[in-house]
Every structure is written in C-alpha cells, then in structure tokens.
Input
Amino acid sequence: MSHDHDHAPTNYGKAFAIGITLNLGFVLLEAFYGWRADSLALLADAAHNLSDVGGLLLAWAAFAAARLKPDLRHTYGWRRGSILASFANAIVLLVAMGSLAWEALQRMQTPASIDAGTVMVVAGIGVIINTVTAWLFLTGSKRDLNIRGAFLHMAADALVSVGVVVAGALYLWQGWTWIDPVVSVLIALVVVLGTWSLFHRSLHLLFDGVPDGIDLPAVRQSLQDLPGVAAVHDLHVWAMSTADNALTAHLVMARDDSDRDVLLEHAMEMLHDRFELRHISLQCESQSFASRCPLADAC
Output
C-alpha cells in the first residue's frame, strides 16, 4: 500500500475575521436604517447579511477544524467539516430566502412609502463592504467549495445591494410603492439561484460522490495505460474535504517481477499532476491474487 500526502492549506483566518467584522457592523447599520426608512428591501438585505455572518462563522469554524491533526479516533481528522459547513450554509440561505419571499408577497398587498435616500446610501455602503469581503475569498473560491460558499455569498450580497440602490432610485423617480417588495422577491430569487449549486454540490460530496472536475473513466484509463499495469479494480474517488480529494485503487501487475516502487511513483505523479489528487492509496497485486480478490467486482 502506498500513500501520498501533499497538503498546503492557505490560511484564510484573517480573511474570515475581517469579513465577519465588516459584515456584522454593516448588519447593525442596515437594520437600524431599514427600520427608520421602513424599507422591507433594506431589512431583508440586513437579515440576509446576518445569515451570511453566521455562514462565515460556520465556514471559519470548518476551516479551522480541517486543520486539526488526525488522531486514533478520527484518522482523517475533521476535514469533512468543511463539506458539512457548505451544506448547512446552503440550507440556512434557502430557508431565509423562502421567508423573505413570503414576507415580500405579503407586503405587496399593502405597499408603503420608504425613505429612498436613506435606503440608497446604506445599500451603497453594502456594495463596498460586500465587494471587499468577496475579494478576500476570490483566490480560494477556485479550489475550495467551503471558501467558494463564502465568496458566492458575499458576491451575491454585493449584487443584491446594487438592486436595493436601483429600487430606491426607481422609487424617487416614479414613486412606485410596490418596487420595494418586488426587489425583495428578486433578491430572494437571485440568492436561491446562486445557492442551489452550493446545496447540490455539498449534498453530493456528503454522500461520497465523485468530486466535480474528476472524470472517473479518465482516471481509470490513465491508470490502465501505465506501463506494467494489466487491469484496475476497486477504484474510488471521493472528497475528504471541500479542498482535498482522495483515491484508492487496486492495480493488477502485468508481470510479477515488475518493479512496484517505480510503478507506484509513476502512478502517484500522474494522478497528482493530471487530476490534482493529493491523498492516494494504491494496492499492487499479482494477476493470480486479483483473480481471488473479493473486491475485484465491487466497483
């Protein structure tokens, strides 16, 4: 059995701390002026931003847990916590947006005037804060689903705040009292659409689905094409966390006298370079052993 470990986690602790502080301060500001201006869109955005603060806290906790060392009771450590955090964040957002949409539909029946100037100024501040926070997670969002969840939330918030500014401008221009709840419904739709992918992908990983970007048939073929390999069976690829994928497989040797160390070295290098797999466990076995292996037909 051979194992390859190459973990180089990036420390996003400072990014989480800055993002949480900025957004918590903005939530208090937005909720106060939303109440003063009687703006459902502003209050709804404040509630959404509050859920994002909770989401950032959850993602931060999962990120910290993933860095804990494995022990005798948790041999993989706590890295799966990042997948759980992504799933929980998606659920919280979907529920929150459902409540927001329901409240907005109720408000449409009895539209009220708003202090559009206050709404626009506060939402404009939100655009700046959310854009800065999203930028903090931009790099990590490309390779870590947990960090991507934080990035998408902040990027969506920036767009939502832009929508609130537009709603205030339209109210000042046309005096449409219904524009505030309509924008609230649009906010909910935008967030749900942006969150659905996070929900689907995190649920998929929770059930040990093959991670996005991993073409399992291509992995199998690449292993079978290695010199000295006659066949591959019991091949599995799953996510250990939102940033690390693992692979296990049995390699059937074409010849019993082949150099297994050389084969393993080539296999691990290929899997790392071509498929970005960093936790690899390979078992080499002879053809006679493979014919009796109880796992030969398991996958």
